[in-house]
Amino acid sequence: MNHKSLLLAACLSLTFAPPAFAQTVTGSGVVPATAANSAERAIGFAANAPASGALVIVMTDATLPLLDGVAFSAPERQAVAAAIAAATFDGKAGSTLSLRGIGAHSRILLVGTGATPTSLALAEAGGKAAQELKSEAQPVVIAGAFGDTSAADVAYGFALGQYRFDRYKTVDKKAPPTGAVTLVGADPAAAEAAFTSRWKPLADGVRLSRDLANEPANVIYPESFVAEVRKAFTGVAGVSIEVLDEAAMRRLNMGNIVGVGQGSPRGSRMMLVRYRGSGAPAAPLALVGKGITFDTGGISIKPSANMGNMKGDMSGAASVMGAALSLAKSRAPVHVVAVAALAENMPDGNAMRPADVIRTMSGKTVEIVSTDAEGRLVLADANEYVAQAYKPRAIVNIATLTGAIVGALSDQYAGLFSRDEALAAKLLAAGTASGEELWRMPLHKNFFDRLKSDVADIRNGGSDGPGASTGAHFIGFFVDDAMPWAHLDIAGVNRSEKTNPLTPKGMTGFGVRLLDQLARSGE
Ligand code: BES
Ligand code: MN
Ligand code: ZN
């Protein structure tokens, strides 16, 4: 890469420069050199398409639609129709058909949405197109029988689907796509306005969340998480940021988060990003995310197989920041405070032990049964602080909290726990609308008995039993009954083993789209 393209790549994507002092602070070896992820295709809108390049046609069924702005000759149309018939392409959601050698197009890609596509189905078609054309050297044109702002929905999906995290690859690096993607439709101005006002900020928020979670723990630890999020919010209006360092958290008696982080040389932090749009209510919606930048389990150490996935144990924190970024960049008329409870859970001579008793900010005491049940601890302190300092109207937690939720819901749903019916209903609706779906899980009062301690007010884990519910109960124990509160367990959905149209393999940024939707829906 020459200097010019390096500079271009650096400008086009979010960069995470490891701080110069990282080596001495982390003691974890040489930090990977600064590099940018491959440039993404720029997204634009136009009334007319060039005759060459790659052409994507969004299809609702097997019939080639009339395409505004695409010069398609009669023989070309006939060739495509013949190919559709030969391949029995039906235009159902998720279907694709790739054609070459027709007209001047380097390639024609048909992508199905099914009849009467929803906004989400259109986005998924866009994501599919981005992935199919990942290594296409040519510029890309996407056309369809788009009404109003459908092209913006497709563009949004394209933005989510084209994400890659390849900044540390130096050999055998796949060539980045070259050229822009242009959405062609009858009303490009309306589509572009919808995209820039809503979907682009949301895609930026998702990208922030994915980048933070994909970064290894020698790059993203509490202090550098704060620095990167600050960078992302630079110049964004209506935002104020508060950061508590370890000394401040000690003064506030946050025994939980200080305790969890005390086995690590990388100091814990609590980061609060408040965004208040014009006309928004005085009391914010608090979005509180678990931010364990690496979870070894601590003294209750995890088995080594797949432990590396625990670099993503700060996905909840990353997603609340992504949602706040989307809301602020789009100037949504909402009031939110995003809270990241950041610590690294390491085994060490100074680490917490099983049977230790710690005191939380609320004054309540906790018996540590397992140092691996650390997420609930940091969330208890974060919830207490935000409740006192920001007087929110509701609190939503989001956390990679338990392995048990993965067994129950796999990668299909995040678990929703709530004592508040109205808040639960709003969250379920936001899940359906955003495509980040939730499944309600029980908080039966009898499950709470498993958290009874002989020596303290509560213990941080039960032996066996409904682990996802007891985890939720633990957090709920520290939240005032009068406070509308919900907890989302995203341990099964924050990472994807395979590439889906809107979530390429790797960290998904789950929660950004959901919480953005929740805030906009008036919660
Ligand atoms: N971060 C883990 C939960 C997790 C597991 C996330 C698998 C993603 C995939 C959490 O801190 C944890 O270790 N939970 C324990 C709780 C137990 C000790 C009560 C668990 O689920 O085993
Ligand atoms: Mn753990
Ligand atoms: Zn954890």
Task: Report on this structure.
It is found in: Cytoplasm. It comes from Sphingopyxis bauzanensis. Mn(2+) 1 binds at residues 295, 372, 374. This protein has 523 residues and is of the alpha/beta class. It has 2 domains: 43-186, Leucine Aminopeptidase, subunit E, domain 1 (3-Layer(aba) Sandwich), CATH 3.40.220.10; 202-520, 3-Layer(aba) Sandwich (Aminopeptidase), CATH 3.40.630.10. Helices cover 34% and strands 19% of the residues. It contains 15 helices and 19 strands. The protein has helices spanning 3-12, 22-26, 74-87, 119-132, 150-161, 188-214, 222-233, 246-251, 255-261, 315-329, 375-390, 403-409, 421-434, 467-477, 512-520, and strands at 43-46, 53-59, 96-99, 105-112, 140-144, 181-184, 239-244, 269-276, 285-295, 335-345, 357-359, 365-367, 394-399, 414-418, 438-440, 458-459, 485-489, 495-496, 506-507. Strands 7-8-10-9-13-17-14-15 form an 8-stranded mixed sheet, with helices on both faces. It has a 6-stranded mixed sheet with strand order 1-6-5-2-4-3, with helices on both faces. α5 (150-161) links the parallel β5 and β6 (181-184). The longest helix is centred in the middle third of the chain and has 27 residues, at 188-214. It is elongated and about 80 Å long. Bound molecules: ligand BES, manganese (II) ion and zinc ion.
Helix content: 25-40%
The CATH topology annotation of the largest domain reads as: Aminopeptidase
> Largest sheet, order of strands side by side?
7-8-10-9-13-17-14-15
Report the strand count.
Answer: 19
